[in-house]
C-alpha cells in the first residue's frame, strides 16, 4: 500500500465533509492508521467539524478500524462537531450491533438521510 496516496474520497458538501472509503476491506493496521490521521487532519482544520463517513464500498471492517472510528468520534465531539455514518453493509452493521456501537454513532441508511440529519 502506498501511504502517500489517500485511500479516501473527500468532498465538501455545504459545510459537511463527506468521506468515502475507496477500498472494500479496512483491515490492515497501517491503512487504518493512515485513515485515522487523514480524518484527524480534517477535524483539526474545522472549528465545528461536520463529517459524514460513507461505508458504501466497504465489505469488511476490523476491530482496529472500529477503534479508530471511536477516536474520530471523540475528537469531533471535543470540538462540538457532528459525525454521521451511512451506507453500511448489513454484514458490517452486525459488528456495530454486537459491539453496541450502533448506540454510540448516528448511523443512517444512505448518504441523503445522513446529510439531512445535520440540519
Describe the 3D structure.
The protein has 119 residues and is α/β, with parallel strands linked by helices. The chain has a single domain (8-116), classed as STAS domain (Transcription Regulator spoIIAA, 2-Layer Sandwich). The chain is 40% helix and 24% strand. The protein contains 4 helices and 7 strands; from the N terminus they run E-E-E-H-E-E-H-E-H-E-H. It has helices at residues 29-45, 63-78, 90-98, 111-116, and strands spanning 8-13, 16-21, 25-26, 50-54, 60-61, 82-86, 106-108. The protein has a 5-stranded mixed beta sheet. A two-stranded parallel ribbon has the order 3-5. Strand 1 and strand 2 form a beta hairpin. Helix 1 (29-45) runs parallel beside helix 2. The longest helix has 17 residues, at 29-45. It is globular. It starts with 7 loop residues before the first strand and ends with a helix. The mean pLDDT is 94.
Amino acid at each position: 500500500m502506498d501511504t502517500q496516496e489517500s485511500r479516501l474520497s473527500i468532498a465538501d458538501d455545504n459545510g459537511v465533509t463527506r468521506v468515502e472509503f475507496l477500498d472494500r476491506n479496512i483491515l490492515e493496521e497501517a491503512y487504518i492508521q493512515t485513515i485515522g490521521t487523514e480524518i484527524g487532519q480534517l477535524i483539526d482544520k474545522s472549528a465545528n467539524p461536520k463529517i459524514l463517513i460513507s461505508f458504501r464500498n466497504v465489505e469488511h471492517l476490523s476491530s482496529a478500524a472500529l477503534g479508530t472510528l471511536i477516536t474520530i468520534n471523540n475528537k469531533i465531539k471535543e470540538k462540538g462537531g457532528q459525525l454521521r455514518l451511512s451506507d453500511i453493509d448489513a454484514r458490517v452493521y452486525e459488528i456495530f450491533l454486537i459491539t453496541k456501537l450502533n448506540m454510540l454513532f448516528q448511523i443512517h441508511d444512505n448518504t441523503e438521510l445522513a446529510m439531512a440529519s445535520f440540519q
